[in-house]
Write a structure and sequence with these properties.
- The protein has 330 residues and is mostly beta strands.
- Helix content is 0%, strand content 45%.
- The chain has strands spanning 4-11, 20-25, 33-38, 44-48, 53-56, 64-66, 74-80, 86-91, 104-108, 116-119, 123-129, 135-140, 146-151, 159-160, 170-175, 181-185, 190-193, 201-203, 211-216, 222-226, 230-234, 242-243, 253-258, 264-268, 273-276, 284-285, 294-300, 305-312, 324-329.
- The strands form 7 sheets. A 5-stranded mixed sheet has the order 2-29-1-28-27, with no helix packed on it.
- The chain is globular and about 50 Å long.
């Protein structure tokens, strides 16, 4: 069965009351979208599985492929630092290539023209910074052990700050408005640090299943998906949790995201895109135009636009392969 990649850009207002309209963008991709990134110049970056990064300097009208000549695996994160440099996380995605495949965190100080491999690892789960511009990365190393790494020089060098954490199975990381770092283990244990990773404390919460997609909003509310409970939120950094009334099975749920307006997004494999503006109390499903489409990535630019990477079912004509759509509210 053939699959097709679409990037959807959704320009939304504060109430999400309008209907969605879709338009094609001028890009076709040979692989699914795994991440989005944006810089202070309004450049758009698209990370893909095995085909590197694409960049647009004109709001999506034309595109350049970066990392030309390198067969990158899966670009999971694209992040702009406080000094306007770019960091990307390249993870092993099972893609077989001829010759070595570079993995880890790459850094660019010229908007993506040239890159330096600043941290070698096989899996970059998340890149995030705190209010003092320390940058943190949740990674898996070459021996599959988990590491939380920290940079205090805008991503040029990295230090392992995992002492006090279990060696294996840290699968998530999030940082709140107080610069506290929260990590989650496969067995449901939460670990927290209030001193930038110098020390860690375990948080007892009664859960016996994993937490996935840990995400804070600016109010300090922590959202996640628990394998045993479903969507949950915490007002005390993971010490206690409250169930969110949105029925989704583990086979349907993909990941969570929060935009700069504190709107919570639940991305699903086959049931559309859910949005809540009140910390998960009420929901709107933006399913129109997303029927039979799997969302693989979501991103938010500085103008309240929302970007979606989509796998589309079989198309009748080859010209429809890997197209890009732009959607917005009237």
């Amino acid at each position: 069965m053939k699959h097709f990649i679409i990037i959807l850009i959704l320009i939304a207002n504060q109430t999400f009351a309008q209907a969605v309209r879709w338009e094609k963008l001028n890009i076709k991709l040979p692989s699914y979208v795994s991440s989005f990134g944006f810089n202070s110049k309004d450049y758009i970056y698209i990370g893909t599985r095995s085909w590197g990064i694409y960049r647009s300097k004109d709001l999506g009208k034309t595109w350049d492929r970066l990392f030309e000549g390198l067969s990158l695996d899966r670009v999971d994160f694209i992040y702009e630092t406080s000094e306007n440099n770019l960091l990307v996380g390249v993870s092993f995605g099972g893609h077989l290539t001829l010759g070595p495949t570079p993995l880890g965190i790459f850094r660019s100080d010229d908007d993506g023209d040239e890159w330096q491999n600043v941290l070698k690892t096989i899996w970059v789960q998340k890149i995030q910074s705190d209010s003092k511009n320390y940058i943190y990365a949740c990674t898996n190393s070459f021996n599959i052990s988990t590491k939380i790494c920290r940079s205090d020089d805008d991503g040029e060098t990295w230090e392992n700050i995992s002492k006090g954490l279990p060696e294996y199975n840290i699968i998530e990381m999030a940082i709140n408005r107080n610069d506290n770092i929260i990590t989650a283990n496969y067995d449901g244990t939460i670990y927290s640090s209030s001193d930038r990773g110098e020390s860690w404390d375990s948080v007892k919460n009664g859960f016996k299943s994993y937490f996935y997609s840990l995400t804070f909003n600016s109010q300090g509310v922590l959202f996640s998906y628990s394998g045993s409970t479903g969507l949950v939120k915490s007002f005390d950094e993971g010490k206690s949790w409250h169930r969110i009334p949105l029925e989704l099975s583990g086979h349907t749920f993909s990941f969570l995201a929060v935009d700069k307006n504190d709107r919570l997004f639940v991305v699903t494999k086959d049931k559309g895109l859910f949005i809540s503006s009140d910390n998960g109390i009420t929901w709107k499903n933006l399913r129109e135009g997303l029927t039979n489409k799997e969302i693989t990535a979501i991103g938010f630019d500085n103008k309240n636009n929302i970007y979606l990477g989509i796998i589309q079912p079989d198309r009748k004509y080859e010209d429809d392969y890997y197209i890009v759509l732009k959607a917005f509210y009237k």
